[in-house]
Amino acid sequence: MYTRKYLLPFAALFLLSGCWNVVEIEDVAFVTAIGVDYDQEAEQYLLTLQVINPATVAETESGIAAADRLPVTNFVSTGSSLLEAVRSASKRIPREPFLGHVQHVILSEDIARDHLVEVLDYIRRYHEIRLTTKVFIAKNSSAQTVVDTVQALELIPARAVRGKTQTNHSLWGSIIEVEFIDIISAYKSKGREIFINGVILEGNKEKGKGKENYEQTQMATTIVVDQIALFRDEKLEQWIPSDITRGLSQILNEIDSTIVVIPIIDSKEQVSIELIHSNTSITTEIKEQRPIINVHVYQVGNIGEASVKIDAESIDEISQLEDDWSNKTTEDLQSMITLAQQAGSDVLGFGDIVHIQHPSAWKTYEENWADHFQQCEVNVQVESVIRRSGMRF
Amino acid sequence: MEKAKLSAFQLFALLVLFQLGTAVVVGFGVNAGKDGWLAVLLGMGLGLIFFLIYYTLFKLYPKPLTSLIQAILGKYVGGFVGVTYITYFLYGAARDLRDVGDLLVTSVYIRTPLIIIMLLHIIAISYVLYKGITTLGRISEIYIMVIILLGLFGNLFVIVSGTIDLNNLRPLLDEGWAPVLSTAYPLTSVFPFGELICFTVLFPYVEPKKVILPIGLSSICICGIILAYTTALNIAVLGVDIAETSTFPLFTTVSLVNIYEFIQRIDAVVVLTLFVGAFFKTSLFFYAALISTAELFKVDFKKLVLPFAVIILLLATVIAKDFAEHILEGQESLYSIHALFAVFIPFFLLIFAYIKKMVNNERKPMDQTS
Amino acid sequence: MKRHLRRRQASIIHKQDKATENADQPLTNSLLVNIEQIKNLFELSDDLIVQRVLEDKSQLTIVYLHGLVNDQKVTDCLSLFTDHFSQNNCNFEAVFQKASLLGNQHAITSFTELTKEILNGSTVILLDGVAKAISGSSRGEKQRGIEEPTSQVVIRGPKEGFAENLSTNIALIRKRLKSPKLCVEIQPIGSVTNTDVALMYMKDTVDKDVLNEVKNRIDQIKTDAILESGNIEEFIEDRTFSIFSTISNSERPDSAASSLLEGKIVILVDGTPFCLIAPYTFFQAFQAAEDYYHRYDIATLLRWLRFISFFISLIGTAVYIAATSYHPEMIPTPLLLSLAAQREGMPFPIVVEALLLEFSIEILREAGIRMPRAVGQAVSIVGALILGEAAVQAGIVSPGMVIIVALTAICSFTTPTYNLAISIRMLRFVMILSSAAMGLYGILIITIIIVAHVCSLQSFGVPFMTPIAPFQLAAQKDTLFRFPIWSFQTRSKKANNKSDEQARGSF
After folding, report:
1. Residue of C441, C448, C468 with shortest CB distance to B141
2. Contact (Cβ atoms closer than 8 angstroms) between residue B4 and residue B133
3. Do C270 and C452 touch, CB atoms closer than 8 A?
């Protein structure tokens, strides 16, 4: 009886109290991609928010009027801070922008060079953006241009970029999926540097904005997910060329599969090997107070294509090929390591490994690890196994 | 005191929910860096000692806390200490209420006033407490199963999603034992194990009495291991730096789960865990305050539910201006308020009780001879 | 409970028939006076037949209510009397002997008894000059045969259901439990209806305290009418003002028998094809009779299916509302987009849409039951298909919402006990409103209040959430899981565990 007396006010309170946070799903503008540029003159962030138009997505997916209307619309806003820029976008977007479903954030090279820390800080504080959001850096173009470009097959650019990232990662291996959480943890760690994947526009950049881009069999502009940007002290230092980034993937154990072309010595012939498994283990030792890093790679592959006849039965020939492959991989890895060392950017995470394996010695390197990294000795050892030589030989 | 009984399993469920409560969600033991989990295990060891103190007190004077204090310290001094304990319980309830309010407001209900979130929570709690300890015991049996299920699924998802990197936990004892030890007392022992002081109010209900000790100690061990595991998990997934700065590390850990783009965004599991944990923690502090007052001033505890609910709600609102202050105060209170009520006073009470027993024992034979 | 019992009594007692007051008189020697008195008592009852059989000194007269008696029996009896008693050889003893044709014949001396007998369908034989009458049981009202239960259908298992006749129903249980330990106590309740109410229990397994409590509460019933077992239920249940029912009902004799074996008490009411079973706990609502006839593995899975459906029907719509209007970050992106596309251009807020649909589903359900059976089917099809389809096409409601609401409605039918399904139907609206007001947090708060409420309920001293809260290890064989029958050894005795302190085998 006591309880019932309070039931009515309670119910009333319940009903009247809420609704502060209620936003009907149709009143929300779901942002799928964000481009972040920096306007040096105005000293302002330039934000491109890509908003999904749900009605069109449903149409596109059911195949009706697929190409008539674009499933996304971009809104540009400026602000001296990211938060300000996001909020001021509401002047232009008829619905409430919601960042909980952002698939990726594209940063311009300016941002990567000078303002990465601010972006990270914003991401860390703002509850809506998920830490699993992918991050890219637009190479040779503004982030806005990349976000503006639409692609065939996947009309939602966010899905196009995601698809390309995944296929590259699983079939080619020249990039590593980088999420905000990876960047933040590399930022916090003293023994590891940040690296971020690049997106590059190929073709006529101006023609990518509308459906004209996919009206012909060949797209006018293609978004290519390739190359990796190397950072030093949270500043973009250098781009790693595409063929070397695979070395990075392999050292970080992030490679699933790729194709390696091995030239046969003293001839113009070559053999292509499909990598199917790779495992890298890194050990460190301290000699004369200097760290020595030993990288050991074990890789397994199949012969995919050869311009010469290879006798699959001949153990000698196969082991010769295995050696060639090992040498080639060693070279690739070495060039990656050299590049990183020259840049003074330990994207390979050697510092963390030294920290784990030699905690006491690490204390002396901790403060200026970049210098130690540049001078440390790295030994690469590769063990290769060729399993099969193709089906029909 | 109500006329009610708690079974062994109900006591166990209440203990587990109370200890996991908020501790499993808020950053716990990360002050010790990578070795936070070690600090938690050490804290658990201290927790066992605390529990032994509380139990021995109860064994000497099988009464609820305030009556027990009066029996040891006399009517007036004991009464005064009892009143301070009531305020401590109210403060504990208010803190946990604030915890749940803050998590919800920072993570989901950005625009909702904090007091509304807390108001609804305290209403639900008042309803349960008005029904009495029997009902609280019974719902604990249901919710412990909910928590076990959530824990199993949450862990499964985190493990399967492959975000765990055990290298984040290495090297062991990077900074030596100093940070571990300084974290173990009081940070990971007084909270949450020291807060078990409020269970001294529940002990009289438990039947049979002999299960209290084994159940209490085993629950502390289980919770200690779960908490240490959770701390280790957070560090393994997030790395020590993010785990340290994150306000609710478990929330962040779980938000990283992504299995084939299908199972993702399961943060709600953590919110639910904190909700349930904080519910029981607040309820038990609240109940301890109710029964202590009812015992001290000989009133019906049901009449106190409403006024106390209002006090707790207001206390939770004014306890801190903002979230940062709340967290900071939480850390500092462990050194002062919590340590005083959970460790020092019970310890001195125990010494007094023994002295009193000895004096009484000596006096008795003298009385007989004279 | 006592309080509202008293309230009902007060209003009823005054209405008691004035005519019955002078019924409490002995019969007189004079036949004419007696018959006059009977006719007064049954004033305006045209179905009362008073027939003089013999024109001799005894003036043998029989009185019965047409329709309640077995016509054949009465005719046989009449012809026997006319054949036998011709030359003034008719006296009380002789007639009493011959009345054995009717069966269960006995002498009655007061008008009270006489009225009762007539109303029960007996034939009363009166003679002049004797202050006694003979009553012979000639009961033979028309009754429905034993049919398949309609509300608790099984695929495998007995297809008998209770009928309206009390003795048939008792027999249906008796033939399943051939044991002298099965006790049946019959007593009439209701000052006007005089409905027979039977209390059945197993002497050895029943909990004496529960039994006394049930008896006590039944004795306290003071009312003029008991027309259905539901009336009894409302009088004796623990808490009338709870949304959950603490007494279960069944129209299956096999369920009743198994409940009896578990030590429960079965209450049968004349004229009701449903028996009441007490005490009743929450988890029994998920135990269908069929669980024990199917193999244990599928029975367990089906039971889990019911639990899941139970939760869907309780919080399905509410969670949908919470997720779409408070927590869009919880929904996977592709799903969210298609939901958002559906909601595009909808005229109502999502809560209004949900309430609208839930409301119309409830209307459909009610209409489906009230409609004449032939139309009922058509209505449900028209309602479900056409209305839903048309509403979606007209852009009034979104297809996603139709799916969710339909799902919750279907899920609510999986609960084997109608009792619980009704409670959930009502609570669903509370859930929807709370989620509309506070999202998931609202749902959590209401859930904890509901859990606390059901935990505080008792059914005749047995906690409602037994054996989960309080937890009883021994009873777990037949709660969330259904262990193989041989593992039960004896039937679960969970009904006997009255309260926490008796929680045997707990942790």
Report:
1. C468
2. yes
3. no
Mean pLDDT of chain B: 88
Q: Do A25 and C350 lie within an 8 Å CB cutoff?
A: yes
Report the SS3 class of residue A98.
strand
Q: Which residues, other chains included, contact C65 with Cβ-Cβ below 8 Å and sequence gap of 6+?
A: C45, C47, C48, C49, C118, C119, C121
Q: DSSP state, A238?
A: E
A6 pLDDT band, cuts 50/70/90, is low
A213-225 in b/e form (b: 16+ CB < 10 A) is bbeeeebbbbbbb
Q: Exposed, middle or buried, C412 (CB in 10 Å: 0-12/13-18/19+)? A: buried
Taking the CA of residue B110 and the nearest CA in chain A, the distance in Å comes to 7
Q: Show the 3-state SS of C441-503.
A: HHHHHHHHHHHHHHHHCEECCEECCCCCCCCCCHHHHECCCECCHHHHCCCCCHHHCCCHHHC
Taking only the tens place, the pLDDT of each residue in C216-228 is 999 989 888 888 8
Confidence label for A330 from pLDDT (cuts 50, 70 and 90): very high
Output the pLDDT for position C500: 37
Q: What confidence tens digit (pLDDT) does each residue in B128-152 have?
A: 999 899 999 999 999 999 999 999 9
Quickly count helices (H) and strands (E) in chain B.
15, 2
Half-sphere exposure in the Cβ direction for C144 (13 Å, CA): 15
N-term to C-term CA, chain B: 40
Q: Do C338 and A23 touch (CB under 8 A)?
A: no
Give the separation between CA A50 and CA A35, rounded to whole angstroms.
8
- Please give the residue that has the higher pLDDT: either B277 or B264: B277
Residue of chain A whose alpha carbon sits nearest to that of C445: A14
Rounded to two decimals, what is the model's pTM?
Answer: 0.87
Cα angle at B185 between B181 and B188, to 5 degrees?
100
ipTM: 0.91
Tell me: pLDDT of A303 over 80: yes
Tell me the H-state helices in C43-126: 71-84, 92-98, 111-119
Q: Do A132 and B116 touch (CB under 8 A)?
A: no
Q: How far is CA B332 from the centre of its chain?
A: 16
Chain B partners of C503 at a C-beta cutoff of 8 Å? 7
DSSP readout, A304-326?
A: EEESS---TT-HHHHHHHHHHHH
Pairwise CA distance, residues B117 & B125, whole Å? 13
Q: For residue C51, give every residue at least 6 positions away whose Cβ sits within 8 Å of its Cβ, in sequence order, or none.
A: C61, C62, C63, C78
**What one-letter code names the amino acid at B38?**
L
C6-60 pLDDT tens trace? 444 444 444 444 444 555 678 888 888 888 888 888 888 888 888 888 777 777 8
Residue C499 has pLDDT above 50, yes or no: no
DSSP B63-81: S-HHHHHHHHH-HHHHHHH
**Interface-testing mutation among C3, C392, C426, C438, with chain A (most A C-beta atoms within 10 A):** C438
The closest alpha carbon to C327, from B5, C284, C335, belongs to C335
Residue A1 structure tokens: 């009886």
Beta bridge partners of A31: A51
Q: For residue C226, which amino acid is it?
A: I
Give the separation between CA B262 and CA C416, rounded to whole angstroms.
34
Q: How many other C-beta atoms are found inside a 10 Å radius of the C-beta of residue C8?
A: 15
Distance (Å, rounded) from C-alpha B142 to C-alpha A151? Answer: 52
- Please give the single-letter amino acid code of residue C459: S
Residues contacting residue B323 through CB under 8 Å, at least 6 positions apart: B102, B106, B247
**pLDDT value of position C19:** 45
Handedness of CA B277, B279, B282, B285 (dihedral sign): negative
Task: Report yes or no: C105 at the A interface, CB cutoff 8 Å.
Answer: no
Of A22, A32, A101, the CB nearest to C325: A22
